[in-house]
Fold this sequence. Notes:
The structure is a single chain. By secondary structure, the chain is α+β, with helices and mostly antiparallel strands. It has helices spanning 43-51, 93-103, 108-121, 137-149, 167-184, 195-201, 219-224, 229-234, and strands at 2-13, 17-28, 32-36, 58-63, 66-67, 78-81, 155-159, 187-192, 204-209, 212-217, 239-247, 250-253, 256-259, 269-274, 279-282, 289-298, 303-309, 312-318, 327-332, 338-341. The strands form 4 sheets. A 6-stranded mixed sheet has the order 6-7-8-3-9-10, sandwiched between helices. A hairpin with a 2-residue loop joins strand 4 (58-63) and strand 5 (66-67). Helix 2 crosses helix 3, helix 2 packs parallel to helix 4 and helix 3 packs across helix 4 (137-149). Magnesium ion binds next to helix 1. It is an enzyme of class 7 (translocase). Part of the ABC transporter complex PotABCD involved in spermidine/putrescine import. Responsible for energy coupling to the transport system. This is Spermidine/putrescine import ATP-binding protein PotA. The complex is composed of two ATP-binding proteins (PotA), two transmembrane proteins (PotB and PotC) and a solute-binding protein (PotD).
Amino acid sequence: ENIIELKHITKNFDDNFTAVDDFNLEVQRGEFVTFLGPSGCGKTTTLRMIAGFEMPTEGEILLNGKDISKLPPNKRPINTVFQRYALFPHLNIYDNIAFGLKLKKLPKAEIEKKVKKALEMVDLEGFEDRRVQTLSGGQQQRIAIARSLVNEPEILLLDEPLGALDLKMRKEMQLELKGMHERLGITFIYVTHDQEEALTMSDKIVVMSEGRIQQIGTPEDIYNEPKNAFVADFIGESNIFNGIMTGKLKVRFCGAEFECLDDVEHGTQVDVVVRPEDILIVPPEQGAVKGTVISVVFKGVHYEITVQSGKNEIVIQSTKSAKVGDMVGLNVEPDGIHVMPAE
Ligand code: ADP
Ligand code: MG
């Protein structure tokens, strides 16, 4: 069952600059959907249209099947958590969370109940009297989320909410947010430019570039079957080679012919994507491709080895090291080769 649908949403800013271009998306109730793309690709603008802070130039937004495109933000059962959580530093936690409810003039007992429940939702029971400054960055962000949950939204929008935290705290909060999403059953629409964050947290990822959707899929889909070179390049480390189809399920790149699983017409110019972890280093005489090791970097769980073969630089992840200057052979299995028509 779709909770929200975006149909042909386009947003032009002045001078006909198109920030979001024909955006189509269906989100199911309870899903964790992430908009992923580089800075400036239109993620925040799309979120702001869902929240109602920005009006689409074209298209419509349906919530539970009804057009909400004309509703003001406070009439939508949707709340947003921003990167700058903007808690009021002079108020305690209770007053921070209760702020909006007091404006709505709800009875005091009801406010108390709602604040207590919101704090339980983010696992910070009993924090009512604490001051903002005594909380860690991660705890402050959880309070900001509690403040959004207190209105019992059907959809929570999160715009790079972990961007201001350091790496360790960000990793912790990723897991906490995912746990929170599973516990609460609310629909989350999450924005990030960090591919690892998107892969870790999402049920569904929407990869965007220059206002347009490049691919929608599960993290596994997006990682294993990128639809085009942009997605392949943006998600994870990739080698991208120019190639040509030389027969049924046969592709030529890096000076050798390989079997592949993607059926593209004979003679087509293609982009060939190969993940560094799918390339095997073998003795030179056993490799489909031969080359010279030009760099070796220790990365903890593996070595990142770069091999020069003709004019191609090929990056490989290997558990075994190699020596700069060595001649090596390289092989790839058919399921490690992803072929897509060149753009
Ligand atoms: P992201 O969140 O992916 O970084 P944004 O949605 O913030 O991207 O912005 C997309 C594009 O739209 C950018 O080029 C940005 O400069 C432009 N933009 C955003 N808001 C406005 C605005 N109010 N007026 C004009 N251009 C804007
Ligand atoms: Mg943004």
